[in-house]
Specification:
Elements lengths: L13 E5 L5 H8 L2 H4 L10 H4 L2 H4 L8 E7 L5 E11 L4 E8 L8 H16 L4 E7 L3 H9 L3 E12 L2 E10 L4
Parallel strand pairs: 4-5
Antiparallel strand pairs: 1-2, 2-3, 3-4, 5-7, 6-7
Helix pairs in contact: 5-6
Amino acid sequence: MRIDAAPCSGHAEVSLRQLEKSDVEAWYEYLRLPEVFRHTSWNLRSSDDLRAMFDELDSASADSTRRLAIVDNRSQQLIGTVGFHTVSSVNHTAEIAYDLSPVHWGKGIASAVCAAVTAWSFSAYGFVRVQATVLQTNSRSTEVLRRCRFRYEGLMRAYRMVRGTPGDFALYSRLPDD
């Protein structure tokens, strides 16, 4: 689903805007890096795998995926993405997902953007729950969620296939009053 008005990023060095097809190559460039790829469930073979997502992003359905570009304010280049998948308009819930180029890790960007977009989703979409699933190996993402006041709910064993192998994922959630 296209997002008309992106929220404030919550971080002075970056802005948020709608993710565009022209961002695909920059997005793929960092997602394919081993230090990023190993902590995700992406099964990317080329940038074409990301292009296929835009049918869902361009959908007008209330339950479609929503994804924003995280843009460096100086260079105006894409350095990450943040958004929601597994959106349920019936249940007013969604799962947040984010990624960031490793060059920008450790600067508080992921935490600021995750917190800002989660808070915005409660007011803009009326979500009553935002959840996140994180591969057990992804300690950096776990710390982002904890800083953003997400609560650990448990381990989901063999929850999602990770390049052909069942992966264990930790489940976190945040409610509007958390």
